[in-house]
Amino acid sequence: MLPERLLFRFILCFLAFLSVLNFLGQKWVLHLPLPWICPIKALTGYPCPGCGLTDAFRFLLQGEVRLAFFTNPLVFLVLAILISIAILPEKTLITFQKKRGWECLLVLVLGWWIFRLIFGL
After folding, report:
1. What's the gap between Cα 82 and its chain centre?
2. Which DSSP category does 121 fall into?
3. d(CA 21, CA 34)
4. What does 43-79 look like in DSSP terms, one character per residue?
5. Mean per-residue pLDDT for 2-28?
6. Alpha carbon distance 24, 108 (integer Å)
7. How confident is the model at residue 2 (pLDDT cuts 50, 70, 90)?
8. CA–CA separation, 28 and 63 (whole Å)
9. How far is CA 91 from CA 76, 82, 97, in A?
10. Theoretical Cys-Cys bridge with 59: which of 39, 68, 107, 114, CB 3.0 to 4.6 Å?
């Protein structure tokens, strides 16, 4: 099995494990402080397109889908890509290359970033 595929499966299993702990009442897991500071935001003062993804994943694990969307809507795109690569890595990558998926992904990310900068989200 490809090492990348194992890594993505590990990530998905870990997220599922956190979800199970959360639904069993172990809320402390999702409130651990994360020492991550975005280097782009630290240097420029402006958020990058990925700012808020960690919080959005945390909200998803808590079952707060609406809050996750308003934190960073790219969380659903990232999750869908992670799941598809974990299940069918070769097919996903070939489909992305044939259907100009990387270009569409870039347009979506840049569009979100511009929207976020204009409206101060």
Report:
1. 8
2. -
3. 18
4. HHSS--TTTTHHHHHHHHHTT-HHHHHHH-THHHHHH
5. 67
6. 36
7. low
8. 15
9. 20, 13, 10
10. 68
Residue 69 structure tokens: 């969307």
Burial (0-12, 13-18, 19+ Cβ within 10 Å), 55 = middle
Per the CB < 8 A criterion, the answer to whether 78 and 53 are in contact is yes
Q: What is the pTM of this model?
A: 0.63
Q: Residues 80, 81, 85, 86: is their CA dihedral positive or negative?
A: negative
**CA 55 to CA 22: how far, in whole Å?**
15
Each residue of 90-113: pLDDT tens digit? 777 777 777 777 788 888 888 888
| Phi (first) and psi of residue 47, to 5 degrees | -75, 145
How many C-beta atoms lie closer than 10 Å to residue 65's C-beta?
Answer: 13
